[in-house]
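Quick one:
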Amino acid sequence: MYDAAIESSRIFSHAVREVADSSGLLTYLAEPRGVDDMIGHMEFLPEKRDQLVCLLRLLASQELLREVTVDGGPRYQTNGARAGRSLDDDGRYVPQIQHIEGWYGDDYAEAIRTTNIEFLGRDLEFLRKPHQFARFDKSLAEEWRLTMTSPLYEFGRGLCVEELVARGNRFLDLACGPGYGAQRIAEACGGRCSIVALDKSADFVEMTRELDYPAGTELRAEVHDINLPLPELAPESIDGVLFNGSFHFIRDKQARLAELWTALRPGGLLCLGHTFARSGFPDEAMREFYFSMLEDDLFPLSWDELIALTEQAGYRPVRNFHQGSYSYLLVEKVSAPAGDRSGR
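Output:
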């Protein structure tokens, strides 16, 4: 599983490498250049400076670039030996299928490559278009479907669902996306469950409602921004919360954890699934650049910070595992949050 996650990130990273080459950026960096130099010469937008820096860090993590200091400031320069054994004659990365065949396959590997090359553009026009960002809506519906139903993503979500349905039949799917998590919960319960599904994207909420669910499923799908206080939920009315792929987008994590603690029954389960956490894994620079391509702001924690924050909020770790820098942390409600003297 870990090898598959890392290999998929390599496929993404080498797609970025291809457009850095075809755009002329790597050629321009034959001499040490500062970020402002690149923005001027390549005609990138100054407001996409952060995205450019993330791209440079990703290329440096592949040892394509090296950072040097000139006149007291950071400069980037192409590493002369950048070809590498893993490229075919066309300069394309050759996926290590043995690492991903149990999870993806060659077709999926090519989909990762082509989707990202098309989005970034062969000449990196992504860095010249002020409003071009990946959004959680129907404009990228097929790409989100491909990502969120991939075997690797389904594996992690499946483990969360297995633990959740063992806790009861009343669930909250927070940042539900197109609804695959809610659907998997309902299927695992045989329809004998109630699910509140919330997402900031009206498109995703509509897609959630359009999915097929087993007879008897009580689904309430609503548009709601996860960076706002949760809608009213009765105290201790939820047996389990699936929070998959979005905890890193929360600004005030402590506030959301406190609200979820109140909504959960004692012993209720919170699954922080597919959460980007800085853990020092080889795919970290790739994830940073990926998130810079999204419209939503990112507020990641280190893995140790994430665990400490949940414990302070009154949760106990039950299970965890990693898919590269995407981590899964399953915690249960056990006590009042640190500093709470209300006796809840």
